[in-house]
Amino acid sequence: MKRSREPFFWALFSSGGMLAALVLPALLFLTALAGPLGWVTIRGVGEFREIVHSPLARLVSFVLVFLSLFHWAHRFRYTLYDGLQLYHLNALIATVCYGGASALTLAAAWVLWLAG
Amino acid sequence: MNARRTTFHPKWHRERMPIFWWLRKWNYTKFITRELTSFAVGYAALFFLAQIACAARGEESWSRLQAWLRTPAVLAFHGIALLFLLIHSVTWLNLAPRALSMRLGGRRVPSGAVLAGHYAAWLLASAAVAWVLVGTGR
């Protein structure tokens, strides 16, 4: 019998879900709402670049993006599976979801590599 | 989780399910809304990446991003995205006591304490994010 890859994706889904739950609301609120609306002063481009320059910050950013993307992939796969009852497209949906998340993760690695 | 699909199974009778079956009951709608929060999670991650990319490209790219962020449609979109992220956080953290059975000194930690711990972690993590992001604007 072929060993299931399910636990591996589930682990990514669940750690991504936890990290996203803890970090993303504050991140989006500050950078996309409170900053642009002038409620708080967000770090400017110079300060931002100083942070991104550190390998640790880029590593943390990479982990955040990677896990969040695989959280999306796994959850959306099952939303389609359960929600739209598309059982016959199971293999195609899995490929599109995990493949999309993998491609975007590679792009993230590239962006973060160049940002250093 | 669903049973494995079989292509030809002579005995099963399948009702045709309309695509929007989940709009019929509030509980189903809530379920699908919670499932769709994954899009807000994916978007927020990519948006964060885009910010880093803009900062790396320089002053001009950064100020264009900031101008885009101040347009009303984008602000409204991000308001909705934040709402979905909050739904994700609350539904996710509320499941923690059921997903995690912790023991301390041979006794099971009460679920209220596990829940409080997770919300405290959320608060701390948010404070850390604020500490990193709030600056002088230079």
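qc> Chain B has a mean pLDDT of 87.
qc> done
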